[in-house]
Amino acid sequence: MSLRLWWGIAWRFLWRSRRSTAVLAAMIVSAVATLVFLDALAVGVSDAMIRNSVSLVSGHLSIENLPSGLSPDSLRAPGVEHVLRRRAAQVWLRSGTNLAGTALWSVDPDAERNATALWRKTTAGSYPEEGTRQLFLGEPVAAELGIGIGDTVTVAGDPSQAGTEYVLCGTFRTGIAALDKGLSFRPDQGEDGDSPWQAALFLADGASPETVRDALRLPPEATARTWAELMPDLRQLIDLNALCMLLVMVLVFFIVSLGIACAFVIFILKNIREHGIMKSMGVSSPETALLLLLEIGGLTLAASMLGVLLGCGLTLAVAGPGVDLGAMTSHNQYFAVSGVIYPRLTASGLALPPLMALLFALLAGIWPVCMIARQRPAEVLRSI
Amino acid sequence: MIRVENVGKSFISPRGVTPVIAGVSFDLETGKSLALMGRSGSGKTTLLYLVGGLERPDTGSIICLDRPVHTLTGRALSRFLREHVGFLFQFGNLLSCLTVAENVAFPLRLNNVGPAECARRVGELLERIGLAGAARALPRELSGGETQRVAFARSIAHRPQILLADEPTASLDSATARNLMDLMFRVGREEGRTTLTATHDPEVTALADRTLRLEDGRIVG
Fold this sequence. Notes:
The structure holds 2 protein chains of 2 kinds. Chain A is of the alpha+beta class. Chain A has helices at about 5-15, 20-60, 110-115, 140-145, 175-180, 210-215, 225-230, 230-270, 270-280, 285-320, 325-330, 345-375, 375-384, and strands at about 60-65, 80-95, 100-105, 120-125, 135-140, 150-155, 165-170, 185, 195-205, 225, 325, 340.
């Protein structure tokens, strides 16, 4: 008897035991749909952490030590949305007798406003305007200097130098100490001459920083680092998030599989009479096992597909508006810009739950299948 | 030819060892019919199961169609059952998830009969038992008599050389039982089938070529 015919019989068993089939399918559908959604949510959390971290200032790819003659346009590889040109200098800020050391970045204010989110973290005043001698400082630095918006600050390479005067146009606070205390901004007016510059590359959704880096033809002295290399703590957090999700998936299916196992035992034992009759007609034990495995596998596959569709639907419905977790993330540095999570479906998130459902269902089915396959037909027929 | 020699079978239960068949021997020639008479618990069903290979004897031997049925296991037993044996049970025992036509076709499909031949044979059998209009009905939609007729059609669909019937009329009224038995023995003779029927219905014994009486697992006449 061919596999097609056994499948036909398995299908009839499932279709004509609709109530039991529906209950079993509902368990699998709900488990798979929940996990597809949870995985999409976990991916959305990771996305949000990356988005928040890179969009604040650093970009997906940071390239240092670029020669001054190199045009930013030469870094526009496929997948690159914005190239920001910056020059960094270690300076001293002086106001009266107060001194503060900082890394001062000369930037293009319009381009920064287009690509980064730091200007949204302005706590007083505004972001610098192009062509002005304005400074944008972290709140702690302004406090250390004892200055407010509109006050004058002297910028010098050395505390003993006279320096150049700037006006404090705005202050920011991100909650990230390294940024708030260590980084200041001014419009680039060529003060740094022919010194090397650094680029921050912002990529389109889905573009890989490693791929973009490999595609760029950088001068030998330039060094390019991805956000994962710049922020290994974030990389680890995302990996930890993914591992936790995998553990949740295994645990959920382990628990669900216990329920599925019980349901399969009931489902299979309900049909024990049929299997005894079939055996008396010459159906062998391997064929009985095959029939049962086709029933379990077919039901699980169909229910899993339905679960995937349901999970996708749920994810897409939520992904539009996003889930605002701002109340729970406002003090978290990885959510410095926004606490809105946009669940995202991934290939692994769509493939793993149904595969695990199939694996666990087949494992759950082993005992009842072995039991029925080994049962002698006379025992079954006597019990009818 | 069925040859049963000195067959014994006991069942072990918490209450101890219960002998069910003790030293039973008989021969049944090919194409002949035999009625096994006896009260409930006399061992008729167990003897049928032993001849069909569904049970293994503790002692003795059973040779059916030159095969040592008492030693058959696994694939060899499955092959023997699906090709050469038809079982007709007391309550029909149709597969509840299959329609009447699918039930009758099942042994044919097991024997890899093609769809066209399968449909032809099923149609012919349903016509013969007067249920051509019920091909797509499920077993739960049939009466007791109809169920037994379908079960009979299924048991002979693959033209087995041996038919083992376990009290096939016990659940039927006398008129329906008579019709079914007439049909079973007539078709059996037409197709040269060896038929072994366990029964306590005297009318059945009248239709069979031979009758054996069982009492407490022994042949008494």
